[in-house]
Amino acid sequence: MRDGPAVSGETGPRGRDSRGRDSRGRDSRGRDSRGRDSRGRDSRGADSPRPGGGKRPGGNRRGEKQLVPEAEFRSYYGRPVVKETVWGPDIPSYLFLGGLAGASSTLAAGAQLTGRPELARALKCGAAGAISLSMVALVHDLGRRTRFINMLRVLKVTSPMSIGTWILSGYTPLALAAAASAVTRKMPRGGLAATIATGLLGPAVASYTAVLLGDTAAPAWHEAHRELPFLFAGSAATAAGGLGMLTVRPGRAGQAIRFAVLGAAGEIAAKSLLLQRLGPAAEPYQTGRAGQLMDISEVLTSAGLAVAVLAGRSRVGAPLAGLALMAASALMRFGVFEAGRASARDPKYTVGPQRERLKDVRPES
Roughly what angle, to the nearest 10 degrees, separates helices 228-247 and 117-142? Predict the structure, then answer.
């Protein structure tokens, strides 16, 4: 005999009531009376609102409050993610001397064209000596001279090292020729041509090493690739101005003082932008040995500028200011070098910036 229709509270042959719901109140699709599944999601896949606007632990959806703290990164057995550079102290010396040479050539060209032969001659000689010592430091770090020569076998425009090698190879003989002409006072036209050429190549010589560092995997260098060229160029100009104050009579060092002030302003601005943009990733520049070197460099720069402006015509004040500015430039290069090494040793400086970039580009779901 056929059964009559099931009344409210009774179940049919499949255990469902008159509305087709099972004992848990869910329909054939597993949804409750509000149309949500067993995980609390509606037909669009959205979560149900939770009391107090909270969220499920570990959730990551729009409008929800995160209850699980961010996981702290730890590398495999605490080992670094990237390998620390094997460069020794020859490299920061090479960075400083190359920057000093390039900026000195630019200042020497300006002095030559504006009728300041004494300042131009001193800076040409300084540039020739600095670039020679810079090449000695580079070759000593490479171990063999043939390694530098082998880099001249190709020209790769996408490689900062290849471009820098060719810049050095073109600049160095010109700087030596300009200095030789200034000292011997022979071949003045050739000396003038070499002076102008080195003056044009000077900014590239002073800053290409920053591009080289920014192209490496060291986090502190790579993350600061935008500001490092301006930081290096400003520091080089400060050192060149200091060299001019150190080597000429105080009464004829006015152009060198102005060049140093301009370079120091650019250096301070570039450093401020670097620290501001990098945020927590700039910690290697502010702590440890690198932080100490950078702080001393900033103090010497400020002191040297103050003495140069207030006592630039003094026979004692001008040389002291020049020495302070040159020392500040050297310490800045060593500080940047140490910051890159320190950031490579600590894995958090590698992973932290990567996570921040992922947060910026990852769309909220």
Answer: 130
CATH number where 268 lies: 1.20.1630.10
In whole angstroms, what is the distance from residue 271 CA to residue 266 CA? 9
Q: Report yes or no on 226 lying in a domain.
A: yes
pTM for this structure? 0.75
At 290-300, the pLDDT tens digits run 999 999 999 99
* Residue 305 maps to a domain: yes
- Confidence (pLDDT) at 267: 94
- Nearest C-alpha neighbor of 261 from the set 279, 283, 282, 238: 238
Residue pair 352/283 in contact by the 8 Å Cβ criterion: no
* Residue 309 domain boundaries: 90-349
60-69, 104-113, 167-176, range with the lowest pLDDT = 60-69
Residues β-bridged to residue 41: 47
Closest CA to 239 of 277, 273, 267: 267
Amino acid, single-letter form, for residue 86? V
Residue with tokens 């099972």: 22
* Residue where the block lists tokens 């900014």: 203
Structure tokens at 195: 């002076």
